[in-house]
Amino acid sequence: MINTMPPLSALRAFEATARLGSVTAAARELNVTHGAVSRQLRSLDEHFGVALFAKAGRGLELTDQGERLQRGVGEAFARLRDSCSRLKRDVEDAPFTLACPGSLLARWFIPRLDRLHHELPELKLHVFSSESELDPRSDDVSATLTFSAPPWPADMRVIELASEHICAVASPQLAARLDPEQPATLFAAKLLYTASRPQAWPQWASAHALDSARLDQALDEGQGFDHLYYLMEAAVAGLGVAIAPRLLVADDLRSGRLVAPWGFIETPARLCLWLPRHADHRRSVRLAEWLKRELDDTPLPR
Length: 302
Hints:
Layout: H1 8-20, H2 23-30, H3 34-48, E1 53-56, E2 59-62, H4 64-93, E3 96-100, H5 102-119, E4 125-129, E5 143-148, E6 157-169, H6 172-175, E7 191-194, H7 200-207, H8 212-220, E8 223-225, H9 228-236, E9 241-245, H10 246-255, E10 265-275, H11 281-297
Parallel strand pairs: 3-4, 3-5, 7-8, 7-9
Antiparallel strand pairs: 1-2, 5-10, 6-9, 6-10
Helix pairs in contact: 1-2, 1-3, 1-4, 2-3
């Protein structure tokens, strides 16, 4: 079947000219030159083999054939504009759902949530949290904020926000009995950990050249917690040495509730914003930019 449809760009130029009554006005609306609109109109005349406009004084008027075309094209573009406007309005009015681990939400995000609402009111943010593994591909999620390590999947857009540093922390009373020059002295205390971050202690121990077998034994004899909040409270209470991301214990370190005797190590992980294909990328980018500013402004112990 022969394709009888002219280019959409030509029909768009025709519709704008017919509706506005002049090539100049159409060019201004379409943000193109007068000559570009004129060429599109000539291409339509050639396509149909008839003139669609006739000169009328200093302007243009539709010919009979042009009026026939305008009835269909005008209605079609009006419906397109209405559909686009309604979709844009629905997207902008819909809440932006951010999935986030509960520990990150409680210890870093919530203290900044009021400022985010004030600075990005159009985001209409709704936060969903879980300590179990989050699904960034869920249709109910606009974006996922989490620590993760590359490589990133090809079907997701991943915006890196900050590198991850982890540290072993203890109460000041317990830290006083540990040697900051000898990381192996931590084995004199109980090791505390969360099941959601099984790689943390091995990464830290490897960076300090500690014996992996001895670490495994210490973890077997240690204490696990479901949530990082409970882990940190156990460390504050002096129950043992905990492992955690620096970002999430920064306030405790500044206040002196916890001490990091052996400093911090960088891991392969990054704090990232994961965006599924169906995400509203315009709002996602604004959120990512805001998060980067907040992270840059977060004072971190060195």
